[in-house]
Specification:
The complex is a heterodimer of chains A (528) and B (297). Chain A folds into four domains: 2-95, Up-down Bundle (Methane Monooxygenase Hydroxylase, Chain G, domain 1); 120-229, D-maltodextrin-binding protein, MBP (Periplasmic binding protein-like II), CATH 2.40.430; 234-276, no CATH class; 302-477, Orthogonal Bundle (MetI-like fold), CATH 1.10.3720.10. Chain A has 19 helices and 15 strands. Chain A has helices at residues 8-11, 16-42, 46-63, 69-95, 108-118, 193-198, 200-204, 280-287, 289-324, 332-344, 347-357, 364-369, 379-408, 411-419, 424-452, 455-459, 480-489, 496-521, 523-526; strands spanning 120-121, 128-135, 147-151, 158-162, 168-169, 175-178, 181-185, 189-190, 207-211, 214-219, 223-229, 231-234, 239-242, 248-254, 257-261. In chain A, the strands form three sheets. In chain A, strands 1, 2, 3, 4, 5, 8, 9, 10 and 11 form a nine-stranded antiparallel β-sheet that branches. Chain A has a four-stranded antiparallel β-sheet with strand order 12-13-14-15, covered by helices on one side. In chain A, strand 13 and strand 14 (248-254) form a beta hairpin. In chain A, helix 3 runs antiparallel to helix 4, helix 9 (289-324) packs across helix 13 (379-408) and helix 13 crosses helix 15. Chain A is globular, with a radius of gyration of 31 Å. Chain B has two domains: 7-66, no CATH class; 80-286, MetI-like (MetI-like fold). Chain B contains 15 helices and no strands. In chain B, helix 2 (16-49) runs antiparallel to helix 14 (261-286), helix 4 (81-112) packs parallel to helix 7 and helix 4 (81-112) packs across helix 8. The longest helix of chain B is centred in the N-terminal third of the chain and has 34 residues, at 16-49. Chain B is flat, with a radius of gyration of 24 Å. The chains are: A alpha+beta (528), B mainly alpha (297). At the A-B interface, helix 2, helix 4, helix 9, helix 10 and helix 11 of A face helix 2, helix 4, helix 5, helix 6 and helix 8 of B.
Chain lengths: 528, 297
């Protein structure tokens, strides 16, 4: 970057406060780097190490000399943007070439450990424990991950372990044991009997490894036993063998990912591990008929929804700003305060409240207007409901922005127009509107882009519905992003790899649309 | 703010027909807009006062008056409501102020300097802001859990960690503010530079005061935007004492949507009040064309 500023800048002498500020800033950066680099290395956080060193270099280059004047103003925001927006995008692109998801989060070693631990069978001399189930504070008591807190009835010793950590003794000072069971534990929330009952199915599948050949499994609601594993893993041949039946399982590819498969080539266990899958995710996106077919319909409605939202909110907001910006009007402040109210309501509250308005039997709209429209059951009505709600949520924004822009237009301009004989309407149409459009047109583009991916507006209001009979992947009001969410996260568990591939595709689509918009609104030409 | 006395007397002398054609119809439009804007909010207020707290028993006009839902929230019977409140204030103020300040710095550079990569920078900014962040959440989550291992205070389930993630949108207001910078004549800062001002003095002593009204508007917009942030918060802030109002209240409601409406509505009312008060406060700065004043003065 080079500055083309007036030469006056370069001739200026440096002031003392400026020097002090510069030294303090650069010194602080050095201190932070010196403090964090060893920690980052110790924790093996290589990505953050690189990010921090690059940031420090950037700060030194930009602020240590008097050059790069625009850079001095751009760098602070750019650093945040690069770290928390661009890096996730790059990571997402990376994920899109993997099978990252539920069941493939861990390493191959963890998957093997789980497979082996799951083959535990009760033997005659199994040790039995009194069992309590716990989650980490804030953890989901219905889905886990669960930790088992076990008391050995013979010795009174307390042990803890979960699916990934082997059973280990817990210091007696960290737990409260009441009548042979752990009732409270440091760093854990112990589940009550009802919660254990709710989580029963998940607990049945839990196996806590003890050593290579044995693991703890849950029996009933408050007992657990140590059993021996029927399966064993052989590192040299990379196979799993069942000691009882003599069957051997080898690594083989099923679908996109590698699993342990039997002699027939079918996967023997549901566990897999994180691995690269090349372009498989993209192939699935573009060649799977069912997914591709839904795309067309969703794309059209996404365009209608985004364009409709922008136009409706802007026309209403701008018109109100024009009408209510007359300085002869009394109570303008009151109008503004009241019209801002919808904006003061957090979006998720508005959406949830509005969704209750559309209830067919006792919703406010049907009740007040004496109708019995099935808002959420009819695709067309549901679409109208989405647009109406979005109008209510969005018009105050356009109103505030238009009012702000109207007031930023110098009075001279209006005075000049009036002196030239323009009446109020002519001033508005020919002078004020073009000036205002210049100020807000990038905002309209941004608003379109926002609505194009306005996930909350759909998810919290209609959850994509109504769904036609037999249709699960896309409802009548699903826009592209919420449809993707349903395909990727709904149904058979999280599939982050595929979801990442689809979001990269959607990003590309958004980019193409933006390019078309730029051309259409002449933003490119206006950047000067 | 003070109106010259002559114009006041003129206004009073207008006959009704002329008054209506010039001003009165504006009130008609305004009142219609107000009715549309306000009815869902009246519904929320009414629901918060309805002791039954169900969807079917609530209308726009409160039928009964009871503060039971408010009492329940403030007493902490439904979760640490006051802690959520404090968390929300911290997050909103820090993020909104820093975001607008950094956007203003960048907007100044984009508006007043000519440098290589400027055009590309502006356009890529517009493009990056369009990335569907819902699906980048997985990556952000992984990153923040890693950051927490370096700085324990910046990890998952911490307000600073949540704040820095939201600051990823620091340049989100650049286009808006650049638009407003562009409306301020360049002659103003060129004159100051000839008088010996540095680029920082031009920015802080001339442009910032000129743009105070619009920057106030922008801070408010950013603040409301952060207040409504729900998705990231629900992923990052799972400990009860770290939640923001949006996350905490949604948790309350999602338990039983129709019967917890009363408590939910009471919390919503308490979120809306400070924003309205804030707007009242900022509105003073918004009134009047200060740009014109700066040019004249």
């Amino acid at each position: 970057m080079s500055s083309a500023q007036a030469p006056a800048h370069r001739e200026r002498t440096t002031t003392i406060p400026a020097v002090i500020a510069r030294v303090v800033l650069l010194g602080a950066v050095l201190a932070v780097v010196a403090f964090t680099v060893p920690i980052a290395v110790a924790q093996k956080q290589w990505m953050w190490l690189v990010v921090m060193l690059l940031a420090a270099v950037a700060i030194f280059v930009v602020y240590s000399t008097k050059r790069f004047i625009p850079g001095k103003y751009l760098l602070p925001g750019t650093l945040f943007l690069a770290v928390f927006l661009i890096t996730p995008i790059v990571l997402t692109i990376g994920y899109s070439f993997t099978n990252f998801g539920d069941g493939t989060r861990g390493t191959k070693e963890q998957a093997i450990e789980q497979i082996v631990a799951n083959s535990v069978q009760q033997t005659d001399d199994s040790t039995w424990y009194n069992m309590s189930v716990a989650v980490e504070p804030g953890g989901d008591p219905a889905a886990g991950p669960f930790t088992l807190l076990l008391v050995d009835p013979a010795s009174g010793e307390v042990l803890a372990g979960d699916a990934e950590t082997s059973l280990e003794p817990v210091p007696a000072s960290d737990v409260t044991v009441t009548s042979g069971f752990v009732t409270a534990a440091k760093d854990y929330e112990v589940l009550d009997a009802r919660q254990v009952n709710t989580a029963y199915k998940a607990l049945q599948e839990l196996a806590v490894p003890v050593d290579d050949t044995s693991a703890v499994r849950v029996q009933g609601a408050n007992q657990a036993f140590v059993g021996t594993t029927a399966l064993s893993y052989d590192e040299a041949s990379d196979t799993i063998t069942n000691a009882a039946t003599g069957e051997t399982y080898t690594v083989g590819k099923v679908g996109d990912s590698e699993y342990f498969v039997g002699a027939d080539g079918k996967r023997a266990f549901s566990q897999s591990w994180l691995q690269g899958v090349g372009g498989e995710n993209y192939l699935r996106l573009f060649t799977n008929g069912a997914i591709a077919k839904q795309f067309g319909a969703a794309f059209v409605w996404t365009l209608v929804f985004a364009l409709g939202s922008v136009l409706l909110t802007f026309v209403v907001g701008f018109a109100l700003a024009l009408v209510l910006n007359d300085e002869r009007m009394k109570g303008r402040r009151l109008y503004r305060s009241v019209l801002l109210l919808p904006y003061a309501v957090p979006g998720f509250i508005s959406l949830l409240v509005w969704s209750s308005f559309y209830n067919k039997d006792f919703g406010l709209i049907n009740e007040t207007l004496g109708l019995s429209l099935n808002w959420m059951g009819d695709p067309t009505l549901a679409k109208a409901a989405v647009l109406l709600t979005n109008l209510w949520m969005g018009f105050p924004y356009m109103f505030i922005v238009s009012t702000g822009a109207l007031q930023a237009i110098p009075n001279d301009v209006m005075e000049a127009a009036r002196m030239d004989g323009a009446n109020r309407l002519q001033t508005t149409v020919k002078v004020v509107t073009p000036l205002l459009l210049v100020a807000v047109s990038p905002l309209l583009v941004a608003s379109f882009a926002f609505n194009f991916n306005n996930f909350n507006a759909i998810q919290l209001l209609t959850e994509g519905g109504p769904f036609l009979p037999g249709e699960y992947t896309r409802g009548g009001t699903d826009i592209l992003i919420s449809m993707i969410y349903r395909i990727a996260f709904g149904g058979s568990g999280a599939d982050f790899g595929f979801a990442s591939a689809v979001s990269v595709a959607l990003f590309a689509l958004t980019g193409i649309l933006a390019a078309i918009q730029f051309r259409f609104t002449n933003v490119l030409e206006d950047v000067n | 703010m003070s109106t010259p006395p002559t114009s006041v007397t003129q206004q009073r002398r207008l006959p009704f027909g002329r008054w209506f054609a010039e001003i009165g119809w504006r009130h008609v439009v305004g009142i219609l807009a107000v009715l549309f804007a306000i009815f869902p909010i009246l519904f929320v207020v009414s629901a918060s006062l309805n002791p039954l707290g169900t969807v079917s028993s609530t209308g726009i006009i409160p039928k009964s008056f009871s503060l039971v839902h408010y009492r329940e929230l403030i007493s902490g019977a439904r979760g640490p409501f006051l802690t959520w409140y404090l968390n929300t204030i911290i997050v909103c103020v820090v993020v909104a102020v820093v975001q607008v300040f950094l956007s203003t710095l960048a907007a100044y550079a984009f508006s007043r300097f000519r440098f290589a990569g400027r055009r590309i920078g502006l356009l890529s900014l517009l493009l990056i802001m369009m990335f569907p962040s819902v699906l980048a959440m997985i990556a952000v989550y992984t990153m923040i859990s890693g950051l927490g291992q370096i700085f324990p205070g910046l990890g998952l389930n911490s307000l600073p960690g949540y704040i820095v993630v939201l600051l990823g949108g620091s340049l989100g207001q650049v286009w808006l503010i650049k638009g407003f910078f562009d409306t301020v004549p360049r002659e103003l800062d060129e004159a100051a530079i000839i008088d010996g001002a540095s680029h920082w003095q031009v920015f802080s002593r001339i442009l910032l005061p000129t743009l105070t009204p619009i920057l106030a508007t922008t801070v408010l917009l950013a603040l409301v935007g952060v207040l409504s942030e729900f998705l990231l918060g629900s992923i990052f802030l799972t400990a009860n004492d770290k939640k923001t109002l949006a996350v905490g209240l949604y948790g309350l409601l999602s338990g039983d949507r129709s019967n917890n409406l009363g408590v939910f509505a009471a919390g919503s009312v308490m979120i809306m009040i400070p924003v309205i008060v804030l707007y009242q406060f900022l509105q003073r700065y918004i009134v009047g064309g200060s740009t014109a004043g700066a040019v004249k003065g």
